[in-house]
């Protein structure tokens, strides 16, 4: 019987080019370079046209030829196609002509872009015959693996730093997943998972399933291009943890150019990190093509990866596209979250505050010109990181159920507002 | 001094599927040299042509990344454990 791998041809080492069969394996046996899926773009070009895409449901699977599964998806049919919001009020605040928010805070089902990568990884895991799935996570990925595994009856083990935000822990436990808290930071969780993955025959979405998993991020980029009217934005700002999302946004733009779906155009991709964990943006600023690992200390826990696996490739994308890297402090992160919420009604998690905070700096410094347009990739919902903003977002004023009390409250506040002018 | 080295899955073909190998060494560099003597070919998997640890390989002494210590010159003492781990994606 002929083996059917869909539009995939092989896995290939990004470093040395050695090829491997399309199994659950993620590093080159020779030099440990990451493996990446190779596609048959000639065939895809014939199958994936704008009219074919238009005729499909509004989910990430409308680009399924460019996603690494052999057959139809079996996990996460509804994921993706989140709103691209024209953010005029935020644009005025940041001082830029045109601004768009790619709003993955409302991604289905777990309110972060991770649903994209997980639906690909779990669909592929089922194709490869796995019944237990697992991940190392800073929180969002654990939520998504737990929910999507529950929805199709896969057993899930998720490994997280034990000190994560309570919201992110509950958001995994509710689905009945096995949640293992590790007393250490994410890089230590990751390290343990690499060892566990070598020992147990599970589909670890970001370890042995990584070549498939990582490709799911491209769908965020494909959607941006389609929603903008089949064109590439001049500037895209992406937050960086391992750097994977940023490299895949770049890849998605390149693939649409290659397939003739968008005109070839110059674009810049900018990377945003938290000041307390900024190995990639720091290296970029210093003009280095390698980074120095750091020990994370930031409220943006979903970005707290001190040894970013895709850091080298993210640096390369920043350099090749002429993009910038910058970082935001904890206060700037909260300020960014508030700006996005108050201007656009979008409550993003801390990582979104990082992206807005860095975009603000890049616009102020002219690295993103004021008369230009930009897309900000907002990756997760603020309800997941309440701890980070509690006590920083004003307070409830309590009164008795009496009209007179309310009127005197308003009078007092108007009075003090007048005084402060 | 005897130290344990944890071998990652992609390299176990070279170590006859041994997961933990014991070597005598004073530094990480010594340990890799001894591994090479016993399992020819393993060094070039870990070290690139200019002599540094390959960028997608993470080496730990006990729980610490050697890039936070003294890289290949990191001293090791009896009972220490060296782990060799491929870099992993985000989460």
Q: Could you characterize what this model shows?
A:
- The complex is a heterodimer of chains A (421) and B (91).
- By secondary structure, chain A is an alpha/beta fold.
- Chain A has a domain of 202 residues: Rossmann fold (3-Layer(aba) Sandwich), CATH 3.40.50.
- Chain A is 40% helix and 15% strand.
- Chain A has 16 helices and 13 strands.
- In chain A, a hairpin with a 5-residue loop joins β1 and β2.
- The relative contact order of chain A is 0.12.
- The radius of gyration of chain B is 12 Å and the shape is globular.
- With 91 residues, chain B is of the alpha+beta class.
- Chain B has a five-stranded mixed β-sheet with strand order 2-1-5-3-4, with helices on one face.
- Chains A and B meet through α5, α7 and α8 of A and β3 and β5 of B.
Could you list some keywords that capture this structure?
heterodimer, A: 421 residues, Rossmann fold, 6-stranded mixed β-sheet, 4-stranded parallel β-sheet, 16 helices, globular, B: 91 residues, 5-stranded mixed β-sheet, 5 strands, 25% strand
Average pLDDT of chain A, to the nearest integer?
95
The count of β-strands of chain B is 5
The CATH topology of chain B comes to Ubiquitin-like (UB roll)
Q: Can you give the helix content of chain B as a percent range?
A: 10-25%
Largest sheet report of chain A: 6 strands, mixed
Q: What is the helix/strand order of chain B?
A: EEHHEEE
Give the number of helices of chain B.
Answer: 2
Q: Could you say which overall geometry of chain A the principal axes of the C-alpha atoms support?
A: globular
Q: Give me the Rg of chain B, rounded.
A: 12 Å
Question: How many distinct folded domains of chain B?
Answer: 1
Percent helix range of chain A: 40-55%
CATH level-1 class of the domain at 84-110 and 215-389 in chain A: Alpha Beta
Mind telling me which CATH architecture of the domain at 84-110 and 215-389 in chain A this is? 3-Layer(aba) Sandwich
Tell me the β content of chain A.
5-15%
**Corresponding CATH superfamily of chain B:** Beta-grasp domain
How far is the first residue's CA from the last residue's CA of chain A?
Answer: 79 Å
What's the total helix number of chain A? 16
